[in-house]
Amino acid sequence: MFPFTLEKATSTQAAIAAGAEGARYIAGGTTLVDLMRDEVERPERLVDINKLPLGGIRVDGEEIVIGALARMAEVAADENVQRLQPLIAESLIEGASPQLRNMASMGGNLLQRVRCPYFRMLDAACNKRAPSSGCSAIEGRNAGHAILGTSKACAATHPSDVAVALVALDATMRVQGPRGERSFPVEDLFRLPADTPHLEHTLLPGELIVEIRVPGGAHTRRARYLKVRDRASYEFALVSAAAALSIMDGVVREARIAAGGVGTRPWRLRACEAALAGRKLSRAAFEEAARLATEGARPLHHNGFKVELLPRTIVRALEMAGEVA
After folding, report:
1. Which DSSP state fits 301?
2. Is residue 150 part of a domain?
3. Cα–Cα distance between 50 and 244 in angstroms, integer?
4. Based on C-alpha coordinates, what's the Rg of the chain?
5. How does the average pLDDT of the chain come out, rounded?
6. Which residues of 136-162 are buried (b: 16+ CB within 10 A; e: fewer)?
7. Which domain holds residue 288?
């Protein structure tokens, strides 16, 4: 391990000031510490933010408000989350082992780095780790990589499961930074790789995630998360789907669908949603809508199976959501 300094933030403003000077925030550290051990990341200064008043879970009208420092396990077990936003609870449970859920914070989960093996190989070309060095995944082993939102510079998938659910649910986030406070959709946190894959999110220097807000609605009662992976636990998604339906008299009034494991960021499937609106609840309607999910897909040599697996996963997730009373 290389030398670095570690300090504890005594206030949110102190943390923001340190972040503006180039310090890295650390809470659960479930990703950052691993990357530091492998020397993939070499921050010189870490700021422990665990003592800041940014935790907790509460109900505000029809919204669930989740503090950025709330642990994944805490959120998944919360009665209000399970009652009002079961999709979030399910995606968190599917997202990590119990040990990791106990450590990892919600804000940190959204900002975790990609799980591309070439990103972690110091002797491999990776534009995320070393800009303009190339992308070994494009011509290498790429079965776990993205088919949507890719570029010639990067095809790594975003690894978060709960981010997929939050994007489907139109969640927003509030951040504080040197320039003050702002709020924006969680979906807008994530950048497409384009020619700058090392720029993964839209936070400004020193900005700190404060809370996540998830609006309510009829669709939240019929919502499920389905994750397809190589093994039953402790594995990242090959394909996942978050589906939420508002149904009246057997007709889909509104659909929310997002996918994981296939995009360079959590992938909202608005064309699929629009195709379901006003349709009678049926497998045929689900299949017709799900076929739109792969528009614009660019499979690589080893991940072409995702073009077929993604629509199938969406159909099953919609069926599961439609079965929930």
Report:
1. S
2. no
3. 33
4. 19
5. 96
6. bbbebebebbbbbbbbebbbbbbbbbb
7. 220-323
The predicted structure's pLDDT at residue 234: 76
Is the pLDDT at 324 greater than 80, yes or no? Answer: no
Contact of 225 with 94, CB cutoff 8 Å: yes
How does DSSP classify residue 202?
-
Q: Quote the CA–CA distance of 167 and 322 in Å, as a whole number.
A: 20
Q: Which two tokens stand for residue 46?
A: 């870490």
In-domain check, residue 29? yes
Max Cα separation, the chain? Answer: 63
Cα angle at 254 between 182 and 87, to 5 degrees? Answer: 65
Q: In one letter, which amino acid is 269?
A: L
Does residue 308 sit within a domain?
yes
Helix (H/G/I), strand (E/B), else coil: 10: coil
* Tokens describing residue 96: 């990590």
- Distances in Å between the alpha carbon of 34 and those of 2, 41, 78, 164, 267? 13, 9, 28, 23, 26
| 207 close to 216: Cβ distance less than 8 angstroms | no
Number of structural domains found in the chain: 2
pTM surpassing 0.70?
yes
Structural domain contains residue 302: yes
Can you point out the beta strands (E) in 200-268? 208-214, 223-228, 239-248, 251-260, 267-268
Letter for the amino acid at 105?
Answer: S
d(CA 151, CA 154): 5
CATH number, domain containing residue 263: 3.30.390.50
Containing 224, the helix (H) or strand (E) segment is strand 223-228
